[in-house]
């Protein structure tokens, strides 16, 4: 694959239409008209960590990304936990993404009754995960071709929706309470401390996933730079998309409407679709469907490639490193990720649909953890170069560490917020805590247990020792704009 293919996969892995639909209501409820500004502020740690991914990938083109790089910089214990966090994000979210794709796909074609019938809905969701997994196994070229179609459909639908919404604001046919966009909407600090923290937590979620471009580094031409650049540019394109569409939605609907419907989740776009587009509301429904569909496939990639890398380094059983003799893809790890994700989806759905939302909420803990760990690893690995020039100090040290510090702060805030059962989607208490935090703790504890068990079974990986970057210059290419 080339740079463009990797960029498209990085974009689709974030599921921009679905992410916007899911977050815009709760975000406006927290910060009001400064929602676009919070999206802008959330971009900062993502760009800094994307820069860390770029430079670490230049040193080590390994599909395990965080696992491999953290092992190289900080040692096997930290590396293993980073790899576990990446793999588990796929398990937690793949079923949920497929569920959204099925729901909005059925709504697009008018099969609302099917969408409301649990056994049909869940059966189609499982089938979709299996189909997307098969596409991943057949090959990254086939995946890239499918992703190119899906991202074009998704972005085109979003832009049409935003353009029509802004036109209706201009000609006075928007909803009661609509607003004229103003420059101060881009100031995230106007919302205040607690609201800003909650907004940033939501903002980090909508950017998550761009690193899928880097997980394909061993399958991309010019892997030392192309996949890293694709990851960085993914965050930049997402910034433009989120701020522009977010501004259009806030202007058209106003803060009162979005806040009142915050509990609708991604369905708020379905509510707005008919009002903005009239009989063309299927355009917005299709955008969310293709967004979740694309992300279902691309989210399998980082999880399966991380498991492959871990098995290849003897950090997991060797059979996870098997490569398909015809398609040359890690078919065993890919199918395992799908099977475990399906089992998790069905098990959590058996509890309640709100429990499924809570499991996705727990993602922010894992995301903040492994992103922050990667930022630290970059500064540690390149520590002997940090004082050689201003550029190296900024890009290899200060930037990644600043991104890591911001994400560590958000991780602590997430834990405090999720400890309150009332803040969860289900509103119930598990062991006196909110379900998302219990899920996060359970995943972390399971990872530590598996790590210690495998440490006793095989000692090969655990013999690895941290290293430091060679004493060669950074090169002339900057991560953005190169």
Detailed description of the structure:
The chain has 482 residues and is mainly α. It has a single domain (3-353), classed as Amino acid/polyamine transporter I, CATH 1.20.1740. 72% of the residues lie in helices and 0% in strands. It starts with a helix and ends in a 25-residue tail after the last helix. The model is unreliable at 475-482 (pLDDT under 50).
List the helices and strands and how they pair.
Blueprint: H1 3-13, H2 16-31, H3 35-59, H4 66-74, H5 76-108, H6 112-116, H7 118-138, H8 140-171, H9 193-207, H10 212-215, H11 226-260, H12 267-277, H13 282-312, H14 331-351, H15 353-361, H16 363-381, H17 390-418, H18 435-457
**How would the global form be characterised?**
globular
Output mean pLDDT: 83
Question: Could you spell the SSE succession in H and E letters?
Answer: HHHHHHHHHHHHHHHHHH
The CATH topology corresponds to: Amino acid/polyamine transporter I
The biggest sheet, with number of strands, parallel, antiparallel or mixed sense and barrel status, is:
none
The CATH homologous superfamily is termed Amino acid/polyamine transporter I
Number of domains: 1
Could you tell me the radius of gyration in angstroms? 21 Å
Distance between the termini: 19 Å
Low-confidence stretches: 475-482
Structural class: mainly alpha
CATH architecture term: Up-down Bundle
CATH class: Mainly Alpha
Strand content: under 5%
Count of runs of 4 or more consecutive helical residues: 18
Number of strands: 0
Share of helix, binned: over 70%
């Amino acid at each position: 694959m080339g740079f463009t293919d990797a960029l498209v996969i990085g974009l689709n892995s974030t599921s921009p239409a679905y992410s916007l639909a899911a977050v815009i209501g709760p975000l406006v409820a927290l910060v009001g008209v400064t929602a676009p500004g919070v999206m802008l502020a959330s971009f900062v740690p993502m760009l800094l960590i994307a820069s860390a991914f770029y430079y670490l990938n230049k040193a080590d083109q390994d599909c395990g990304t965080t696992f491999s790089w953290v092992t190289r910089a900080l040692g096997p214990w930290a590396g293993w936990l980073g790899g576990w966090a990446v793999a588990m994000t796929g398990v937690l979210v793949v079923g949920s993404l497929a569920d959204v794709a099925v729901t909005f796909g059925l709504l697009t074609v008018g099969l609302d009754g099917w969408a409301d019938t649990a056994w049909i809905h869940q059966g189609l969701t499982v089938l979709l995960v299996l189909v997307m997994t098969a596409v991943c196994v057949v090959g990254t070229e086939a995946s890239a071709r499918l992703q190119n179609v899906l991202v074009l459909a998704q972005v085109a639908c979003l832009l049409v929706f935003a353009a029509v919404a802004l036109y209706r604001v201009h000609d006075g046919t928007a909803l009661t309470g609509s607003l004229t966009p103003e420059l101060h909407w881009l100031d995230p600090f106007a919302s205040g401390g607690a609201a800003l923290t909650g907004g940033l937590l939501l903002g980090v979620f909508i950017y998550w996933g761009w690193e899928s471009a880097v997980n394909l580094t061993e399958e991309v031409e010019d892997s030392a730079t192309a996949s890293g650049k694709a990851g960085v540019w993914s965050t930049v394109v997402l910034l433009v998309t989120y701020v522009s569409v977010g501004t259009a939605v806030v202007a058209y609907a106003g803060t009162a409407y979005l806040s009142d419907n915050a509990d609708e989740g991604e369905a708020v776009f379905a509510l707005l679709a008919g009002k903005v587009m009239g009989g063309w509301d299927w355009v917005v429904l299709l955008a969310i469907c293709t967004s979740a569909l694309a992300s279902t496939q691309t989210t399998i990639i980082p999880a399966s490639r991380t498991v492959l890398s871990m098995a290849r380094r003897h950090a997991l059983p060797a059979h996870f490193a098997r490569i398909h003799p015809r398609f040359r893809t890690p078919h065993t790890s890919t199918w395992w990720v799908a099977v475990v994700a399906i089992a998790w989806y069905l098990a959590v759905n058996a509890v309640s649909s709100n429990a499924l939302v809570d499991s996705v909420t727990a993602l922010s803990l894992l995301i903040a953890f492994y992103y922050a760990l990667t930022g630290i690893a970059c500064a540690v690995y390149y520590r002997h170069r940090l004082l050689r020039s201003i550029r190296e100090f900024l890009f290899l040290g200060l930037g990644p560490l600043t991104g890591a510090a911001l994400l560590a702060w958000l991780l602590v805030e997430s834990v405090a917020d999720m400890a309150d059962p009332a803040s969860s989607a289900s509103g119930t208490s598990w062991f006196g805590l909110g379900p998302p935090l219990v899920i996060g703790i359970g995943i972390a504890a399971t990872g530590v247990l598996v790590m210690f068990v495998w440490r006793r079974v095989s000692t090969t990986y655990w013999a690895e020792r941290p290293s430091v970057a060679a004493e060669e210059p950074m090169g002339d290419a900057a991560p953005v704009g190169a």
